[in-house]
Design a protein that fits this description.
binds magnesium ion, Aldehyde Dehydrogenase, Chain A, domain 1, binds 1,4-dihydronicotinamide adenine dinucleotide, about 40% helix, Aldehyde Dehydrogenase, Chain A, domain 2, about 525 residues, seven-stranded mixed β-sheet, alpha/beta
Length: about 525
């Protein structure tokens, strides 16, 4: 703050290193500053919705071309922060899915699988570089379509998207070293279904390893966030990726179901709700010998465990990053907080103070901490679950910030007086809502943390390395963060236990999901 104030007095329009852009028209300060009344004023970022025009209609991407859906059906994609319509998105049906699969099959047989790994790697590097060049555009669109704060899409999502393509580009010509003594072969055509919480990042997680191994792809983005996937299609064209190597079919759940049912798909990779994951597992199992391979990355109810010997202020920041990142639209969000009894009062006091400083509002403003909830449906679900918590006896703590009149918003919230049987302690809320509980001993901590149908991630906060190792061994979670939370890297595998799914994405492990080892 002090720095911002000082610079402003000096008449500079710069607030951080990210805000300056040669092309930005500098307006007088008074006009540029949003007034948040009870808070301090910041200068807004140069990103705005005028810089990157969005076409009024988006078609399907099949065989390297943008084509209209057979049924000529379209649906609206809206900005959840303003409720304004951004564009129309094509609704693919079974015939479109079949056409996309046929294009992927041809590309697989004729071009992509016979190509050397070295050549495939070159395309992936090229895609990664174009993503970097266009990252500002992609970040702004991601924020407008999905509601996440620009500082996250710009500084977290987009760098990771490019990093995933770079990382798997590096593996493309080294697959035989990835599996010593074995010969990895591609599986064929991969059908990939992704959710709306990290639209581009989930696309990168799925597409990059599949292509590196020599597979071709039919991707189905989530219905509320298709715009950046279609920009990615433009990037594939710009990179001259051979037609049919990646095909994108937009639409809702029925399009996803058609993809799962489609003959000629060799592998299904899904990220989304446990509910839909179970449906997919069932429908794949019923196919018998003809069934595609399957990996599922589903919900979570991660425990963030804070011991008395932890650096408390650091832990508070980790708790905040764990649950309020991306409005809590994170499958590995630290949505259950377990605090050791001796520090409970201190942690609650600090948490209460800290959430008061969080800014909720315009996701395109670079100072925003919490953007818009992705859809009206999701907001309804969050409200209903929080209400169930209150009805079951939990105590509600929320910030007193004013929420914008239009759009879908939910303030940072935590619930105390929660017991293990409450729905808010059991079910995935997928919103900025934390359920706080206490524990006395490490044994109690991991037993309570493991007491959930999920097992995707967990966090441990302590000064003692030995305690970290003990907890990491006992926690049934695919990822255990120690004295940090929600940190991702393409080299590191990610995936769950139990109802959080099976299979790993990222790292060397992420390759084996797309290879047959001979
Ligand atoms: P969802 O699981 O319905 O959607 C994820 C993707 O699956 C979307 O692309 C959707 O179109 C597709 N899909 C939906 N029904 C399908 C079907 N029968 N067959 C094939 N594909 C299908 O998730 P939704 O409804 O958007 O969110 C509901 C809840 O799921 C959230 O409140 C949250 O708790 C959880 N969720 C978890 C995610 C995660 O990353 N683990 C991501 C998104 C949602
Ligand atoms: Mg759904």
């Amino acid at each position: 703050m002090a720095i911002v104030e000082k610079r402003r007095k000096a008449g500079s329009s710069r607030t951080t290193q990210h805000s300056a852009s040669a092309s930005t028209k500098v307006l007088p300060l008074r006009e540029r500053t949003l007034n948040f009344g009870d808070k301090w004023d910041y200068a807004p970022s140069p990103e705005d919705n005028k810089s990157f025009p969005i076409a009024p209609r988006h078609e399907l991407f099949i065989g390297g071309k943008f084509v209209a859906p057979r049924a000529r059906r379209y649906f609206d994609s809206i900005n959840p922060a303003t409720e304004e319509k951004l564009t129309e998105i094509a609704h693919a049906d079974g015939r479109d899915v079949a056409a996309a699969t046929a294009a992927a099959r041809t590309a697989y047989e004729k071009v992509w699988s016979p190509m050397s790994g070295r050549e495939r790697g070159k395309y992936l590097y090229r895609i990664a570089r174009i993503i970097q060049e266009r990252s500002r555009e992609l970040a702004v669109l991601e924020t407008m379509d999905g509601g996440k704060p620009i500082k996250e899409s710009r500084d977290i999502d987009l760098p990771l998207v490019a990093a995933h393509f770079f990382y798997y580009a590096g593996w493309a010509d080294k697959l035989k070293y990835a599996f010593p003594g074995r010969s990895p072969r591609p599986l064929g055509v991969a059908g990939q279904i992704i959710p709306w919480n990290f639209p581009l990042l989930m696309a990168a997680w799925k597409i990059a390893p599949a292509l590196a191994c020599g597979n071709t792809v039919v991707l189905k983005p989530a219905e509320t966030t298709s715009i950046t996937a279609m920009r990615l299609a433009q990037i594939f064209q710009e990179a001259e990726l051979p037609p049919g190597v990646v095909n994108i079919v937009t639409g809702a759940g029925e399009t996803g179901a058609a993809l799962v049912q489609q003959r000629g798909i060799d592998k299904i990779a899904f990220t989304g709700s446990t509910e839909v994951g179970k449906l997919i597992a069932k429908s794949v199992a019923e196919r018998g010998a003809d069934a595609p391979r399957l990996t599922l990355e589903l919900g979570g109810k991660a425990a963030n465990i804070v011991f008395e010997d932890a650096a408390i202020d650091q832990a508070i920041e980790g708790i905040i990053a764990g649950i309020y990142f991306n409005q809590g639209h994170v499958c590995c969000a630290g949505s259950r907080l377990f605090v050791q009894e001796g520090i409970y009062k201190t942690v609650i006091r600090k948490l209460r103070d800290r959430i008061q400083t969080m800014r909720v509002g315009n996701p395109l403003d670079k100072n925003t901490d919490i953007g818009a909830i992705n859809s009206a449906t999701q907001l309804k679900k969050i409200r209903a679950l929080v209400q169930s918590g209150v009805d079951e006896g939990a105590h509600l703590e929320q910030t007193r910030c004013r929420l914008p009149a239009k759009g879908y918003w939910y303030p940072p919230t935590f619930l105390t007086n929660v017991t293990a049987s409450h729905r808010v302690a059991q079910e995935e809320i997928f919103g900025p809502v934390l359920s706080v509980m206490t524990f006395r001993t490490p044994e109690e901590a991991f037993e309570r943390a493991n007491n959930t149908p999920y097992g995707l991630s967990a966090g441990v906060w302590t000064d003692k390395g030995s305690k970290i190792f003990k907890m990491a061994q006992k926690l049934r979670a695919g990822v255990v963060w120690a004295n940090t939370f929600n940190k991702f890297d393409p080299t590191s595998p990610f995936g769950g236990y139990k109802e959080s799914g099976f299979g790993r994405e990222g790292g060397l492990q992420g390759l084996s999901a797309y290879c047959r080892l001979e």
